[in-house]
């Protein structure tokens, strides 16, 4: 593909939460159980539903969408819990973790590979004021040549302005850039509006995105260096 600059999304592209383990612990506390793999797939499908049907909802404060989101996860797994109590208890369980967001095991390795091949690395993310803290806490911030956060620049994906802001900051043309993210409607559609090519992350192959035909679609960012150097 021969790109000289790669822009990344943040959540579920570079970092993740241990939300499925938290959910499973809650279920076990209620005297039930469910395989972790089933929880992972239920969360994945719920993510894709919200991305497709309720654009922007996942980027807002948790109290505005989380009970609704959790109700969908419960429904997919056949559970019917008191959502107020469930949300509160799951927040308590998650609060025991030192960090809310963790980098994927391969994230730093991928970023290092790109830097070693003189590929520019940037971040374009819909995120609140904690974005840079997430990067710092995971030892990632030093890899980025440019960081563009919606809460800092006053515009959000999939709007064009946040991508144009990134292009201006890096002084690169869209034809030289690749965007990588897990939300087709924010990441692929948004970046294409300014002429960038995009790679879609979907952990489970075509599962949950059957309505889409975008290529390339990959399981994780581990494939990105090879795509860039084709």
From TrEMBL:
Keywords: Hydrolase
Superkingdom as given in the UniProt entry: Bacteria
GO molecular function: hydrolase activity
Keyword Hydrolase: yes
Gene3D superfamilies membership: HAD superfamily/HAD-like (3.40.50.1000), Putative phosphatase, domain 2 (1.10.150.240)
Family annotation (InterPro entries): HAD-like_hydrolase_domain, HAD-like_sf, HAD-SF_hydro_IA, HAD_2, HAD_sf, PGP-like_dom2
Protein name stated in the entry: HAD-IA family hydrolase
Species annotation: Paenibacillus ehimensis
